[in-house]
């Protein structure tokens, strides 16, 4: 059955662009947020003044601060709050959920207890509901300007995949399907770490060869980690892998890249976060992934070096230089394994 009604949980920039696409596609859409004044502005002026002040929104989009009203009877609920709040919000809406309602996470982060991805948190809280993940190279501000973009809906449930593809596809947004939610979700979470590292590199004025090396070796490192976590390495060739890594490591619209850039310019981590004024998920993800890599003995020199810069005040240029003298390595480990070189 095509999706006829949707809820978007979260009033930030990505939640708003997703809600607006759904409303543009004629789907009855309710967006839940905590802030009354933003909900009023969306309903009356059709604008989200805090997160997307320059984007006129579809007048049919209804904003509400009543979570029950938002999720009740919605065919699909998109969850678009920062990772630290996903469990809390899902526990709040659980009492109003029916088993046939689909849940789709757009959140790119990790819950540290048990190292859970957001779709796993949703399944943990709402075990009776089909769950999917939407992830890809999706800078919200570009999508808000209707610049052409694509994303991936990943789920083991083929009905959910097809219905979400139909609900979100439009002239400027194209949605591809994947049956590897774990890989797609890890791609979205892990790339934030490397966007921070790319921000340092840009601020230090290092060259294009350096940038290409960092992005490509980041892909090698994140796919090595993801495969150890049970993901399909081929997923990293797609939009949710190399696609999202490339955009987030290249654009000053990325919050994670901006945090890295500010640190490369000499700001402390606290100063960089304060000047950003929004959540850069990669800062926390870096801590959790480093711990997991140590615990599981996974070789992740870029994660270790980025951690030293962010949390131990190491000099980014010296760290980058030190990485050049790492152990002799294979270019593509899925072709030549690390112990065969
Ligand atoms: N912005 C992007 O370009 C983009 C693109 C793709 C995916 N994402 C991912 O989507 C998620 C949301 O991103 P965003 O850009 O919309 O974030 P944002 O920081 O712009 O907004 C998050 C929203 O969640 C709300 N929120 C925070 N804690 C909450 C809580 N406990 N209860 C209820 N609401 C709460 C905030 O008030 C805000 O309205 C992130 O994980 C991000 O990685 C973002
Ligand atoms: O602004 P960032 O760094 O959270 O990145 C936004 C999106 O994840 C890009 O796909």
From TrEMBL:
Residues 180-320 form the Glycerol-3-phosphate dehydrogenase NAD-dependent C-terminal domain. PROSITE patterns: NAD_G3PDH (PS00957). Its main location: cytoplasm. Substrate binds at residues 108, 255-256. Keywords: Cytoplasm, Lipid biosynthesis, Lipid metabolism, NAD, NADP, Nucleotide-binding, Oxidoreductase, Phospholipid biosynthesis, Phospholipid metabolism. Residues 7-159 form the Glycerol-3-phosphate dehydrogenase NAD-dependent N-terminal domain. One of its GO terms (cellular component) is cytosol. It is an enzyme of class 1 (oxidoreductase). Catalyzes the reduction of the glycolytic intermediate dihydroxyacetone phosphate (DHAP) to sn-glycerol 3-phosphate (G3P), the key precursor for phospholipid synthesis. This is Glycerol-3-phosphate dehydrogenase [NAD(P)+]. The gene is gpsA.
